[in-house]
Write a structure and sequence with these properties.
This protein is of the alpha/beta class and about 325 residues long. It contains twelve helices and 13 strands. A seven-stranded parallel sheet has the order 3-2-1-4-5-6-11, with helices on both faces. Strands 7-10 form a two-stranded parallel sheet. The chain has a two-stranded parallel ribbon with strand order 8-13. Helix 3 links the parallel strand 4 and strand 5.
Length: about 325
C-alpha cells in the first residue's frame, strides 16, 4: 500500500517508517523538513520525502493529493486539525491512524487504566487528545472514514532525553544518582510513570495497519508491559552506575524551591496523573508483544546519551 506518514522524522516515525518499508509498502514522509530521523536505517533511502506545514490551511489537500491508501498522523494536536483531515480523506483513504497520548486520561482512580475506564483528562493537551480520539471513534462507528487511535506513554529511545525518575527531563538527576548523592523526591515516591520504547509504539501502528478490521474504530494504549514508580525507577537507575539511591522525601513546596519552577511543574504534570495502563486490548486485537520493559528502554536511551557526550554523569555505567 501507499502509506503517508505525517511527522515521520520524529520519535515514532524513526522506527515506524523503516518497518513499513521492510514490510513492502510505498512510504511517503510528510514533514516540515527541519529534522532528520534519530536512527540511521538503509530503508530511509526508499522513502519519498514531502515538505509541508501542518499549520498551512492547504495541508489536508496536500495529504489527499498524495493518494494514500493509509495515513498515519503522528503530529495532530487539535480537534480542528483532526476534523479537517478526516473531512478531506473521507471516501478516499482506506485507513487513518492517529497518534494520541495516555494523557487523554486524567489522574488515575483505578490501576491499571484501560481504554474504557480512563478518568476525565486534565489540562489542555490531554483534553484535546481525548476529544480527537472520541471524534475518530464516532467517525468510524457512523460509517465514515476507518480510523484508529494509538495512545503512547512516555516515549523513550536513542537520541533524546527520557522522562527521568522525578517526572521531568532535568539531566541533573542522572549525575546525582550516578554519584550516589541524596536525591530530593517530592512526596513519598509511589507515583507511577508509564514509559514505552518508540519501536514498540511503531509495532502497534504497524499491527493496526496489518489488522485493519480489528483496529477499525478502536483506540489502543501503547506502553511497556509494566510501569515504574518514582522510587523504583530511581533505585534501578542508580544501580546502573553501581550505586544505591539515597532518596530524601521533601514537600512539593521545597522541591519547587530547589528544582526550579519549570522542572517542578513538569514533575507535577507527570506524577499527579499516576499512570499505569493495561495493554490487554492491544495484545488481544493486534497481537502486540512489546520487546522492552521500561527500564530496558530507558537504559538504552541513557547509554546513547552518555556515549554521545550529551549526559554528564559522575561514574560510568556498570551494566
Amino acid at each position: 500500500m501507499r502509506i503517508v506518514v505525517v511527522g515521520g522524522s520524529g520519535h515514532i516515525g524513526t522506527f515506524l517508517v523503516p518497518r513499513l518499508v521492510r514490510a513492502g509498502h510505498e512510504v511517503v514522509n510528510v514533514s516540515r523538513g527541519q529534522r532528520s530521523h534519530y536512527v540511521d536505517d538503509p530503508a530511509w533511502s526508499q522513502v519519498r520525502p514531502v515538505t509541508a506545514d501542518r499549520d498551512d490551511p492547504a495541508f489536508p489537500e496536500t495529504v489527499s493529493g498524495l493518494q494514500p491508501d493509509v495515513v498515519v498522523d503522528l503530529i495532530c494536536f487539535t480537534l480542528e486539525s483532526a476534523i479537517a483531515l478526516v473531512d478531506r480523506l473521507r471516501g478516499q483513504t482506506g485507513h487513518l491512524l492517529h497518534c494520541g497520548s495516555i494523557w487523554r486520561a486524567g489522574p488515575s482512580l483505578k490501576l491499571p487504566v484501560t481504554e474504557e475506564n480512563g478518568p476525565p483528562p486534565l489540562g489542555e493537551y490531554g483534553i484535546a487528545k481525548d476529544a480527537i480520539a472520541r471524534m475518530l471513534k464516532e467517525e468510524t462507528r457512523s460509517g465514515g472514514l476507518v480510523t484508529t487511535s494509538v495512545h503512547p506513554g512516555h516515549i523513550v529511545g536513542p537520541g533524546w532525553h527520557p522522562i527521568g525518575p522525578l517526572g521531568n527531563v532535568d539531566p541533573a538527576v542522572w549525575r546525582t544518582l550516578s554519584a550516589g548523592d541524596p536525591l530530593d523526591v517530592p512526596g513519598i515516591g509511589t507515583e507511577f510513570m508509564h514509559h514505552v520504547h518508540a519501536d514498540d509504539v511503531a509495532q502497534i501502528f504497524e499491527a493496526a495497519i496489518d489488522r485493519r478490521e480489528a483496529a477499525a474504530g478502536e483506540d489502543f494504549s501503547a506502553v511497556a508491559p509494566s510501569a515504574l514508580n518514582v522510587r523504583g525507577y530511581a533505585r534501578i537507575a542508580a544501580s546502573w552506575f553501581g550505586q544505591e539511591a539515597r532518596l530524601r522525601p521533601v514537600s512539593w513546596v521545597d522541591f519547587r524551591r530547589t528544582a526550579g519552577d519549570e522542572a517542578a511543574e513538569t514533575s507535577w504534570e507527570h506524577l499527579v496523573r499516576d499512570h499505569y495502563f493495561s495493554i490487554d486490548k492491544a495484545r488481544a486485537l493486534l497481537g502486540y508483544a512489546p520487546a522492552y520493559e521500561p527500564e530496558q528502554a530507558i537504559l538504552e536511551a541513557v547509554r546513547w546519551l552518555i556515549d554521545h557526550d550529551q549526559l554528564d554523569v559522575a561514574t560510568p555505567l556498570t551494566v
